[in-house]
Amino acid sequence: MIAKKAEGMKFTINLITPDNDEKYVIEMSNATLTNIKGFQSENPDLTITMNRSDLDYVMMGVKTLDELIKTGVVKTKGNVKIIAQLKSALDYFEMGFEILPGTASKMVEKKTNPFQQDEPAVWGAE
């Protein structure tokens, strides 16, 4: 999260993943995003219901949350504009960032949307 961009944001999201029967409450407050597994808010601003397998695809950048909502794979209830707010405060890290001096990747630097990554490499592709 970019704290300066998240200042003033305040919302609560219930996330439900029915394929593995998990529930989370996600809260943005004081420019901090937190989540608690096993809990749900009684009055969320938004509820997102999606299979964990689809969430994995979103986190890997194979699919976008917007695409899955549009196709009906992901169900929402409440203020979906919160998703755009959340995306606007996310920071993007290059995969080859330097952890220790001299460990930086030789990858070509490029700026991308934090919710859209290159397709994963295909094993055996040239």
How does the major sheet shape up?
5 strands, mixed
User: CATH class of the domain at 3-88, please?
Assistant: Alpha Beta
Mean pLDDT: 86
Structural class: alpha+beta
List keywords for this structure.
single chain; 126 residues; alpha+beta; Nonspecific Lipid-transfer Protein, Chain A; five-stranded mixed β-sheet; 4 helices
Question: Can you walk through the features of this model?
Answer:
The chain has helices at residues 3-6, 52-60, 65-70, 81-88; strands spanning 11-17, 22-29, 32-37, 46-49, 75-78. It is of the alpha+beta class. It has a domain at 3-88: SCP2 sterol-binding domain (Nonspecific Lipid-transfer Protein, Chain A). Strands 3-2-1-4-5 form a 5-stranded mixed beta sheet, with no helix packed on it. A hairpin with a 4-residue loop joins strand 1 (11-17) and strand 2 (22-29). The protein is globular.
Write the SSE topology.
Blueprint: H1 3-6, E1 11-17, E2 22-29, E3 32-37, E4 46-49, H2 52-60, H3 65-70, E5 75-78, H4 81-88
Parallel strand pairs: 1-4
Antiparallel strand pairs: 1-2, 2-3, 4-5
